[in-house]
Write a structure and sequence with these properties.
Elements (H helix, E strand, L loop, with lengths): L19 H11 L5 H9 L3 E2 L4 E3 L10 E3 L2 E2 L11 H8 L5 E7 L2 E6 L9 E5 L4 E6 L2 H7 L6 H9 L6 H8 L4 H13 L5 H11 L5 H16 L5 H13 L5 H6 L4
Antiparallel strand pairs: 1-4, 2-3, 5-6, 6-7, 7-8
Helix pairs in contact: 7-9, 8-9, 8-10
């Protein structure tokens, strides 16, 4: 019996309900037969953030020595979700004949169709670590093996609800290379935008020029979030998009999030 994995209160990555027409188009475009258990999940909710976000691994990864992390699952849209696989394969020089289920930048979880057209194994790919290895023999095994990894970061987010950051504390967080601390600071600003609009823009612009890929990706995602709720000025968005387009490591975010700019 398959677990219920979806976070119901988070709409990000969630696509309109899956239809037979879109499913047929996806399988025709990708030239594969998608796993029945994957289709069943998407019939409940077409992609989105998931509750059970970790999967055990015998191979150490950039996440940990004993597991990988997967915060969301791609759905199937007219042109997005798993149908963006070919684009990301070219962008990140990934193997052909795979379908990306989750990930961004250097790490991905995918269905491996290199040796089969039906019920493929699930693999993990890390470009920077030059890793490709099997996580599960099929999607059903993979989805039922997901679990919630107990992490100290959960306690930090609980404390974050009551924390009132000073400008000095925010500046200190943004001056570090600690992705977790930067995320907490951005989350605080997202909940406290009033009067901080200019500060938010300047910090996102600075983060987008970080030498660290993960931080640039983080900044691009948050730039999209702030833009969606109308916090960023048109000049600020224009400058951010210009920075993103000039950086070949993150330029794909420009078309993904800011195609009208």
């Amino acid at each position: 019996m398959m677990i219920n994995i979806w976070k119901k209160d988070d709409e990000y990555y969630k696509l309109p309900p899956l239809t037979d027409k879109i499913l047929e188009k996806a399988e025709e475009t990708l030239r594969v037969k998608l796993p029945k258990s994957y289709i069943h999940l998407l019939q409940e909710q077409n992609g989105g953030y998931i509750i059970y976000d970790s999967y055990p691994s015998d191979v150490p990864t950039s996440w940990a020595d004993d597991h990988i992390n997967m915060e969301f699952l791609f759905g199937i849209g007219e042109e997005n979700g798993i149908l963006e696989s070919d684009y990301f394969i070219r962008e990140w020089n990934l193997p052909n004949n795979i379908v990306l289920l989750s990930g961004s930048g250097h790490s991905w979880v995918a269905l491996d169709y290199r040796h089969t057209k039906e019920e493929p194994p699930v693999i993990y790919i890390n470009v920077e670590w030059d890793q490709i290895f099997e996580l599960a023999p099929n999607f059903d095994t993979f989805i039922n093996g997901l679990y919630v990894e107990e992490r100290d970061v959960e306690d930090l987010y609980f404390e974050q609800d009551e924390r009132q950051w000073t400008i000095d504390e925010l500046n200190n967080a943004f001056s570090t290379s600690k992705e977790q601390e930067i995320t907490l600071a951005l989350d605080y600003l997202f909940e406290n935008t009033k009067g901080n609009e200019h500060f938010i823009e300047q910090k996102l612009i600075a983060l987008l020029q970080s030498p660290i890929l993960d931080i640039k990706q983080l900044a691009a995602n948050y730039a999209n979030h702030f833009h969606e709720v109308g916090i960023l000025s048109s000049n600020g968005v224009e400058e951010m998009v210009s920075i993103i387009r000039k950086d070949n490591e993150i330029e794909y975010y420009a078309d993904m999030y800011f195609s009208n700019n």
